[in-house]
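The protein record filed here.
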Amino acid sequence: MMKFRGKSAFGAFLLALLAPALFAAVPLPEEEAEKLEDYLAEIDAQAGMLILEGPDISLYNYPHDIEKDRAAFDPRKIDIVVGNRLYMTQINDWFLNFDKYAGKSVEIEGFYMDFDGFTYVGRKGPICPFCTGGYVNFEFKYDRDLSALQSEKSWVKVRGILREGSVPSVFEKDTMEPFYYIEAITVEKMPKVGKATVRD
């Protein structure tokens, strides 16, 4: 499963895909052409590594103490309740403008998903450029047993806090890139599936 973190990684991946078409009709000096070819080859190799090997969850830094934060969490005071309308819009805005949301409490329902050990809540819908597995979804991190849930089948309600973690960049050595997730305080299995497909 491919997992991109941060706009720079996603942009570099798109560049690797589009650059051959963009530059095919533009002659470059030989030296510049060689540099471009080497750069694209490096990106292609790194992107291929991501696709073939999948992400290594041990490299991801989730810096918050869920048990400690659970003690102070008030489920009666939720800052953001994600409903059936503007579901994808809200998730995309978390990725694009996370500074506005960091530390806010959130409640969101959707399918529980487990991809390569990473857990998500989300729904079916239009393509989300920052999401994973063909869903409109958002990662959450939980410290309790989820073995009773079935990936892509169980419907859950996640309450928690929007957080920023970090992971080593696959495109720039010795640098860290941010990723965003819900520090899940509670994950509740719901008795029935809600609105499974969203359009906005």
The radius of gyration is 19 Å. The CA atoms of residues 46 and 170 lie 7 Å apart. Residues 30-53 form the longest helix (24 residues).
